[in-house]
Amino acid sequence: MSHIWLFFLLASLVSGGLSGQLSHLSVAAMQGAQEGVQLSLALAGALCLWSAVSRVMEKSGLSEKLSQLLSPFLSRIFPETCRDGAARSFLCANFTANLLGLGSAATPMGVSCVRRMQEFSRDKTRASNEMCRLIVMNTASIQLLPTTVAALRSSLGSSHPFEILPAVWVSSVCSVAVGLLAAFVLEERT
Q1: How confident is the model at residue 51 (pLDDT cuts 50, 70, 90)?
Q2: How many Å apart are CA 59 and CA 36, to the nearest integer?
Q3: Which of 112, 117, 158, 163 could form a disulfide bond with 90, CB atoms 3.0-4.6 angstroms apart?
Q4: Which of 57, 43, 71, 65 is nearest to 146 (CA)?
């Protein structure tokens, strides 16, 4: 990835130099950096809030109750993972964070779930079918409440940041369904 960014940087510098626009390039770079910091701060508030809510849910035992509620659904997709209590808890927390549109907050829980999956995996050198399905679900993620996108829209001046809900619901359900179907069809039968 660093090679790609280096290529973009060098291409920008060469293009700016050849066109005599290096001063505009430096102004654009500074403006982009400033906007990046502002965006990060706008998104950090929502991420901190939902991370704290997640922690409160864990400490209050609500996470475990949610895990039991989601288990019948998730055990059909992840039968081996749901046999392990810790892995099931991480999986349910990850799934819930994705439902709330908190992709960044869901990542640590997904990584913890994959680590637990690796512990009881037969082949430690390859991703299991369930690991691949988890990656598909994380990447596509059904979002009932896209809080990160709403925070981004709000920070950019949208007066109705949640007006995108129906489109998000349809597109996320379709993407997860197609992704899981592809994962089941292409999974390695061992």
Answers
A1: confident
A2: 34
A3: 112
A4: 43
